[in-house]
Each structure stands twice: as C-alpha cells, then as structure tokens.
C-alpha cells in the first residue's frame, strides 16, 4: 500500500510520538518475586491484574497479549493534554472526543483510555463518565505528557527524580475529579522509556503498557488509511494505540467505525488491556497464589 502523501506530511510531533520508541528492553518476570504492589485505588477484594515486577526493581512492560490465547485485541486511546494547552482549550480547541466515546459505547467496544491528569482536569465530567462506565477502564498517561527520556520526539523532558511524583500526580488528578477505578497501568508519553524511567515509575506501583500496533491516527486526515494500518497490524493479543484527542487525531472516530465491524467479522473480540494482562500474568507466573479469582478484574463488560 502507498502511504498517502498527506499522511506523511501530517507527521507532526504527536504523530511521531505514536510511532513508539521503546528501548526494547523486555523485563522478564521473576516468578520468585511477589506480584506487583496493588494500586492504592484498588480495593483488596478486586485487585487489578498486573505483571510481576521486572528484574532489579524495574516496572514490568506489557506490549501485547498471548498470541495463542484466542482472537482478542485491545483498542487503547490516549487522552493527551500538555500543561500549556490550557489556553488553547480555553479558546475552543477540543482535546476531548465525545463522539468517539459515544461510538465505542454504541458499538459496545471494551476499551482502555490512557488519560493524562491534565485531560481529566480539563474534562472532569467526561473523565468521570468514562471511569464509571464498565465498558471502559482508565489508566495513567502521566500528568501533562512530558517525556520520560531525554530524546523523545521533541517533547519536554521530566527529570528522573520527578517521574514517580508525576505519575502519582496524575492519579491524584483522577481522584480529584471523581475517577475512582483508575488501573495501575502507565503509558509513557511517546512510548519512550529506559531503565531509569522503568525504575522510577516502578515506585508508583505501575505496569508499563506499550503497544504492538501503531494506528498512525495522530494528525491523520485519511480515516481509510489509518483503518487499513490497524487492520494490517492486528494479530491475536494485539494492543492498538489510538487517540482520544479530537484536535490532534480527527479521524479516530471514523477509524473505529471501520475497524470494529471488520475485526469482528474476522473473529476478533475486543477486550480491555487488563484482560490481556490477566491472561499473560497467569501464564507467566502460574504458581502465584494471586492467580484465579483473586486476580480477576474489578469490572466485567
Ligand atoms: Zn500520548
């Protein structure tokens, strides 16, 4: 397939950000260690599934689910917002995408929304409604989308000693607006991380969640091309990165309307990230006492 020129031309910072730039350092789980600490938001009887901590205290990194666990796929939507976009929002620029959320509801697509704390502050009613809807789960995408490595597509960088606080600040912002069920999952802005970043965010008790399918929806204008990219990339267990930020990703709602029926036609079932992690965690640490019902997600579709 030829990538339309206008899509290439549209590759701005956010588009580059979605291209991903993980170091590829997979942190192998250590079965001898206890399971990851529960998020302070998780009640004791409904603990969200997490992966075992990586070696040397690094946060575990989840990129995709089991390839042989059936045709499941997780659509994830990053609700980006930076600290300096407040004035732009005040002038009418929309960093939210209520039409997208409505379409996901209409099509009954379980999804995971990686929300910045800044987004939750800007759109508290939407943040609360997404959280309250059992179709969705809210996870953490930092407070205001600073990069966690020094070179990440031109994003401003957060100092290592402030990384943990930034993740926790986002969780606090969620709580402040009434988001009560945020999952202990963290998506690095731009997908950029290194050992230092993994060590620092581990202190916040999170599992880092990357992806294996880049939709390329940021700044795209051709919904068909984005949909094609998703359909070409999805395999069983895939995690697809998309955006819930209308001004930066205007085609996403149309993309969802195209890919959801097609993937269902191909036999895929949509799941939230927690379901993929639960399946993976159970496989990687079969002897862990936290398996079974204790590791069940707090909510079902
Ligand atoms: Zn982002």
Series of H and E elements: HHEEHHEHHEHEHEEHEHEH
Question: Which oligomeric state applies?
Answer: single chain
The rounded Rg comes to 18 Å
Into which percentage range does the β-strand content fall?
A: 5-15%
Q: So what's the CATH class? A: Alpha Beta
The largest sheet is: 6 strands, parallel
* SS field, number of helical segments: 11
Give the integer mean of the pLDDT values: 84
Contiguous low-pLDDT stretches (5 residues minimum) are 1-45, 285-301
CATH topology: TIM Barrel
The tally of strands reads 9
What level of helicity do the residues show? Answer: 25-40%
Quick one: overall form? globular
Structural class: alpha/beta
The end-to-end distance, rounded to whole angstroms, is 36 Å
How many domains? The number is: 1
Within CATH, the superfamily carries the name: Glycoside hydrolase/deacetylase
In brief:
The protein has 301 residues and is α/β, with parallel strands linked by helices.
Description of the molecule:
There is one protein chain. The chain is of the alpha/beta class. The chain has one domain: Alpha-Beta Barrel (TIM Barrel), CATH 3.20.20.370. It has helices at 5-9, 13-18, 86-90, 98-106, 117-122, 124-132, 160-177, 195-202, 223-233, 252-265, 273-284; strands at 61-62, 72-79, 111-115, 136-140, 185-186, 207-209, 213-214, 238-243, 269-270. The strands form two sheets. Strands 2, 3, 4, 7, 8 and 9 form a six-stranded parallel sheet that branches. The longest helix is centred in the middle third of the chain and has 18 residues, at 160-177. It is globular and about 45 Å long. 50% of the residues are buried. It binds zinc ion. Zinc ion (ZN) is lined by residues 17, 78, 80, 141, 145, 189. Residues 22-66, 281-301 are annotated as: Disordered. It holds the Pfam family Polysacc_deac_1. Residues 35-49, 287-301 have a biased composition (Low complexity).
């Amino acid at each position: 397939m030829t990538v339309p020129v206008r899509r290439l031309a549209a590759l701005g910072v956010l588009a580059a950000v979605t291209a991903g730039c993980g170091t590829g350092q997979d942190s192998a789980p250590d079965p001898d260690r206890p399971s990851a600490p529960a998020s302070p938001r998780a009640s004791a009887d409904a603990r969200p599934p997490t992966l075992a901590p990586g070696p040397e205290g690094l946060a575990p990194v989840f990129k995709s689910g089991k390839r042989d666990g059936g045709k499941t796929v997780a659509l994830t939507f990053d609700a980006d917002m930076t600290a300096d976009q407040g004035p732009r929002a005040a002038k009418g620029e929309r960093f939210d995408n209520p039409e997208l959320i409505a379409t996901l509801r209409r099509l009954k697509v379980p999804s995971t929304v990686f929300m910045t704390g800044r987004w939750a502050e800007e759109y508290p009613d939407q943040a609360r409604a997404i959280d309250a809807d059992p179709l969705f789960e809210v996870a953490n995408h930092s407070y205001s989308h600073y990069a966690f490595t020094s070179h990440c597509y031109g994003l401003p960088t957060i100092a290592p000693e402030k990384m943990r606080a930034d993740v926790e600040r986002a969780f606090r912002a969620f709580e402040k607006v009434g988001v009560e069920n945020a999952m202990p999952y963290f998506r690095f802005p731009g997908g950029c991380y290194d050992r230092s970043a993994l060590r620092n965010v581990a202190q916040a008790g999170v599992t880092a969640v990357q992806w294996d399918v880049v939709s390329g929806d940021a700044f795209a204008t051709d919904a068909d091309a984005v949909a094609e990219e998703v359909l070409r990339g999805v395999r069983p267990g895939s995690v697809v990165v998309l955006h819930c930020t209308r001004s930066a990703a205007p085609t996403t709602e149309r993309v969802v309307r195209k890919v959801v029926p097609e993937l269902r036609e191909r036999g895929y079932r949509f799941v939230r990230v927690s379901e993929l992690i639960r399946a993976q965690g159970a496989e990687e640490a079969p002897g862990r006492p936290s398996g079974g019902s204790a590791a069940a997600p707090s909510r079902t579709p």
